[in-house]
């Protein structure tokens, strides 16, 4: 009998240097910190017994490297997927959030507090534009891997967008909890066409919890 259950594991990359410095990343990139590598290793250990039919990752180095660490000794390649990249932030990328907030207060406020009104005057993407890039690809992968289990390694806004689509959460509430900590794990199970969210931003595999001082700055500071 064919398996009618499709399981989607989704995670964010590990902490990066720019996360720690509170710089906006978007399509630009910074490397994983030592802690970010540890976070990816913790998730590798938690998922080592899961038989993934495929592992897809944003081609941004921070996400792709996280995926490689999670893959571990599995034989399959990590498949780069452009559609899983973070929201594009244009001229904001690489700049401190404090600088952006000072120079572009209205747009910065909209990004974090009223995403439905955010206009991306920096030359990046709006939230609806990013949604139109990401969600059709996720649907494609679900159909391609019907009855299988797959892993997506992506970014905070992208992950929020994917899970919110299953929740039916309106864009205005995108930033409502939970916080998407580095390598937090979400799990969507689709059975007979009905999706259920079994995990959302779970960090039980973290050996240093996000509420501890060492993680507070990068995990709760506004940096994507």
UniProtKB/TrEMBL annotation:
The record's keywords, sorted A to Z, are:
Glycolysis, Isomerase
Report the Gene3D superfamilies cross-referenced here: Phosphoglycerate mutase-like
**Keyword Zinc among UniProt keywords:** no
Please give the InterPro entries that the UniProt record associates with this protein.
Answer: His_Pase_superF_clade-1 (IPR013078), His_PPase_superfam (IPR029033), PG/BPGM_mutase_AS (IPR001345), PGM_Phosphatase (IPR050275)
Question: Could you say which residues form the signal peptide?
Answer: none
User: Is-annotated flag, keyword Nucleus?
Assistant: no
Protein name from the UniProt record:
Phosphatase
Which species is this UniProt entry from?
Dictyobacter formicarum
């Amino acid at each position: 009998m064919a398996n009618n259950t499709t399981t989607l594991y989704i995670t964010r990359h590990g902490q990066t240097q720019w996360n720690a410095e509170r710089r906006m990343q978007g399509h630009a990139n910074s490397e994983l910190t030592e802690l970010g590598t540890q976070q990816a290793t913790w998730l590798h250990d938690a998922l080592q017994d899961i038989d993934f039919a495929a592992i897809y990752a944003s081609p941004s180095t921070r996400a792709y490297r996280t995926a490689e660490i999670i893959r571990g000794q599995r034989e399959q390649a990590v498949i780069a997927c452009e559609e899983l990249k973070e929201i594009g932030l244009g001229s904001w990328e690489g700049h401190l959030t404090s600088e952006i907030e000072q120079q572009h207060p209205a747009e910065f406020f909209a990004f974090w507090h009223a995403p439905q009104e955010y206009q991306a005057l920096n030359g990046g993407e709006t939230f609806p534009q990013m949604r139109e890039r990401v969600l059709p690809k996720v649907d494609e992968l679900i159909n391609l891997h019907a009855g299988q289990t797959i892993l997506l390694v992506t970014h905070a806004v992208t992950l929020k967008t994917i899970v919110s689509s299953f929740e039916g959460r309106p864009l205005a509430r995108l930033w409502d909890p939970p916080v998407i900590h580095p390598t937090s794990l979400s799990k969507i199970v689709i059975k007979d066409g009905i999706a259920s969210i079994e995990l959302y931003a779970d960090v039980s595999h973290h050996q240093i919890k996000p509420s501890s001082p060492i993680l507070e700055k990068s995990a709760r500071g506004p940096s994507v």
